[in-house]
Q: What sequence folds into this?
């Protein structure tokens, strides 16, 4: 089945530094990937839609200069949290749309970011 | 945009009994309704989904029903087992814009 690999699974960084999170589709080509943010005991909030070879589309209220998204190939999208602050601490999850059947969405395993 | 509400937020069920989680959506254009299971520290895993041209779908102990007129859909888990304990999210979306809007989640606990 479709597999989306996300790395790292957890990261701790200092305030002011940048962190990159990778999302790879291992056995399929993903022209579109999605990035979500999830606070403890809350739902998933869509941050941006990442399209291969073009600029990401950000949801309202998401700072595109702070959350840099790159989708350079059909199997890789990256999210860079720039100049991280403690309030950026969260669980970040990517997903990719897969074809076949009813066009399911496969999620990565998530990245727990802690900014200290 | 789409708004998805989910109830209950927590649910405890005796092992072997059934569990039902309900969701409502607001956008009549939504045509795809997946359900995800999320275990602690992991990403959501798709467990079942349904499209708007189908009223019910079943996969072993799991079933989903959809009422387009009332704009609500439900997840039914029968013969619950301890490994069913997790957080379950419903979602709604339109293939036209590819976005999924998630419900607020239900923490299901199966009591042995």
A:
């Amino acid at each position: 089945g479709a597999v989306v690999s996300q790395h790292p699974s957890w990261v701790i960084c200092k305030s002011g530094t940048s962190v990159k999170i990778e999302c790879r589709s291992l056995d399929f080509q993903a022209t579109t990937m999605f990035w979500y943010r999830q606070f403890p005991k809350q739902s998933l909030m869509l941050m941006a839609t990442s399209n291969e070879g073009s600029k990401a589309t950000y949801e309202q209220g998401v700072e595109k200069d702070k959350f840099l998204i790159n989708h350079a190939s059909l199997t890789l999208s990256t999210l860079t949290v720039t100049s991280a602050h403690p309030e950026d601490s969260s669980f970040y999850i990517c997903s990719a749309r897969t074809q076949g059947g009813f066009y399911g969405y496969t999620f990565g395993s998530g990245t727990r970011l802690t900014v200290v | 945009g789409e708004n998805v509400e989910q109830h209950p937020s927590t649910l405890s069920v005796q092992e072997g009994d059934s569990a039902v989680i309900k969701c409502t959506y607001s956008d009549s254009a939504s045509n795809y309704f997946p359900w995800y299971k999320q275990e602690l520290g992991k990403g959501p895993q798709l467990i079942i989904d349904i499209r708007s041209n189908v009223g019910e779908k079943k996969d072993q102990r799991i079933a989903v029903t959809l009422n387009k007129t009332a704009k609500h859909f439900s997840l039914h888990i029968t013969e619950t087992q301890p490994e069913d304990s997790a957080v379950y999210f419903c979602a709604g979306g339109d293939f036209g814009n590819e976005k999924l809007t998630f419900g607020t989640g239900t923490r299901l606990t199966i009591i042995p």
Summary: The longest strand of chain B covers residues 86-93. Chain B touches chain A at residues 32, 34, 36, 41-46, 49, 51, 89, 95, 98-105, 107 (CB under 8 Å).
